[in-house]
Design brief:
The protein has about 140 residues and is α+β, with helices and mostly antiparallel strands. The protein has 3 helices and 5 strands, in the order ααββαβββ. The strands form 2 sheets. The protein has a 3-stranded antiparallel beta sheet, with no helix packed on it. A two-stranded antiparallel sheet has the order 1-2. β4 and β5 form a beta hairpin. α1 runs parallel beside α3 and α2 packs across α3. The longest helix is centred in the middle third of the chain and has 23 residues. The radius of gyration is 19 Å and the shape is globular.
Length: about 140
């Protein structure tokens, strides 16, 4: 039973970061004059820079040379992976905002990706590199 428990911890340590990424809401960045190709290029560059900086700040999570309840383990620590993933996401978002992109969120905090998700009078939050502002939607074009 104890070996099964250790095996499950190893499996979860690899799956947890992937599950978190897969379940996250798709982020749509908005920037006047940026088409989809330019946005994708900037997103890829920011993601790569964020991964490199997170690696520099916290080191590589693999192989983890710690232990699980006194037993040596080569599995990555779930807390190391999730901490690094969080750092990468924050750095990538900062990079995109620094390039002039903004995020649009509704009153509940969900990312708005399409105009059809917004009705006249809806409250929105626009997130920029330096701050965020709340706005109220008017009729679309």
């Amino acid at each position: 039973m104890e070996n099964h428990s250790i095996t499950m911890r190893k499996i979860l340590s690899f799956l947890l970061p992937m599950i978190l990424v897969a379940c996250s809401t798709a982020t749509r960045w908005e920037k006047p004059g940026a088409d989809e190709a330019k946005t994708d290029q900037d997103r890829a560059e920011c993601r790569k820079a964020a991964e490199q900086e997170a690696f520099r700040q916290g080191g590589a999570p693999f192989p983890y040379s710690g232990s699980w309840y006194g037993r040596p383990s080569t599995a990555a620590s779930p807390s190391v992976d999730t901490d690094r993933l969080g750092t990468e996401n924050k750095l990538a978002a900062f990079c995109m905002k620094s390039r002039g992109y903004a995020l649009v969120r509704n009153a509940e905090g969900a990312v708005v990706t399409r105009a059809e998700q917004v009705a006249p009078g809806d409250r929105l939050r626009l997130e920029f590199v330096d701050d965020s502002v709340e706005v109220r939607a008017e009729a679309g074009q």
